[in-house]
Design goal:
This protein has 49 residues and is an alpha+beta fold. It has one domain. It has 2 helices and 2 strands; from the N terminus they run E-H-E-H. Strands 1-2 form a two-stranded parallel ribbon. The relative contact order is 0.28.
């Protein structure tokens, strides 16, 4: 099974002011022909919230 694009997993820092730059970085990565995927850890959010 082959992929025609490289993939990257991005883990956001769920703090105030970090989401918009995170999404801007994801868009730049996508323009470079790399497929960004985001992951969200509910347990980690529960620990830091």
């Amino acid at each position: 099974m082959g992929f025609d694009r490289e993939h990257i997993v991005m883990l956001p820092l769920t703090a105030k002011g970090h989401l918009i730059p995170f999404l801007a970085l994801a868009k730049q990565i996508q323009r470079a022909k790399i497929l960004p995927a985001t992951a969200n850890w509910r347990r980690r959010i529960a620990v830091f919230a």
